[in-house]
Amino acid sequence: MAEHSTEPPDGKHPAFVVRSRAPLNGGPPPELIARAEHTPAELFYVRNHGSLPSIDPASYRLTIGGLVERPLALTLADLRSQFSRVAVDATLQCAGNRRDELQAIRPIPGEVLWGAEAISSAVWAGVPLRELLLAAGVLPAAAHAAFAGLDEVERQGQRFGFGGSIAIDKALAPEVLLAYEMNGAPLPAAHGFPLRVVVPGYIGARSVKWLAAITLQAAPSSNYFQARAYKLFPPAAEAHSADWQQALMLGESSLTSVICQPAAGARLPAGLVSIEGYAYAGGGRSIARVDISADGGASWVQAELRGQPTRWAWRLWQAQIELAPGAHTLVARACDTAANTQPESAASIWNFKGYMNNAWHRVLVHAG
Ligand code: MTE
Known about the structure:
Helix content is 9%, strand content 36%. It is mainly β. The strands form seven sheets. Strands 6-5-16-9-12 form a five-stranded mixed sheet. The longest helix has 8 residues, at 129-136. The radius of gyration is 21 Å and the shape is globular. Ligand MTE is lined by residues 44-50, 92, 94, 149, 151, 162, 191, 204-205, 207-210.
């Protein structure tokens, strides 16, 4: 159950909605999710699987090893003085965003029941991962870059740091950063201080926080969060008999859009109503269009996209729609620049881990 914190977690806004305190998981309330293009750090969602490590920046070292010509160990000062500082405007979204809608179809035990708040956007600044990898020298057999975090997670009776990997072509793409700044300020503790990976366009799990080590290797990371969690199964698969080798190892985010205002269950004066939300294409694609319906999808109007076209960040949108007195199901669906659209029903994409729910977003409101 979500809890409106009486005492907000360190550095968070009083309205931050806590879904679990240890580990900390939470995000902004619906009306604040899409208020600003860049989410203030105090509202940025937090997805932790384990402890919050306390890291001494003076003794911190980032190591780069595995299939490289020259293994490196770098201080924070080395990272700032020997490499470029690049800023990227990028949205992070957890693969479990909107899991609550899947849970309403069939139970999803043991997972955080996120609403639509496991997504936020920031300007990240730091070292392009590409520069570091080129400095270390990428050997031809290196097919994946694996990241290891300094936190401690417990799974299946074992303790280890959170980790994950991305394929080498993405690791060498210019947008992937080792970020030490978020929205112009040092990275907050909850978001990975002193250094985190930011993999724009990918599920949030690949953006490893409190980064300790990068290892180039022939195979994807064997870390639990790459090899077991964050895998997508078809609707009929069940946890006890699932074939983990066959499932899709999640990478790119898929197209989604969400109505943030009005909130579900809102009572509004009949007449012209303003509707607001976010749309995110994922994978480096851009939002082409957001359609809004006030009659459950029978008819649609086009929302106005705010800001400028973006490649790695969400697009906020707004629409005005006339509501007669009575109950209305507001619906949002987006279309991206590859003409992808969202699935109409969450039931068609249900999966027992509750990932990647990008069905049309529906909000029931009452006008009167
Ligand atoms: N990195 C570490 N070390 N530990 C974690 O638990 N959670 C991942 C990722 N990086 C995680 C991590 C997941 S699942 C997501 S969605 C993002 O961090 C969330 O980033 P945020 O908490 O800064 O929003």
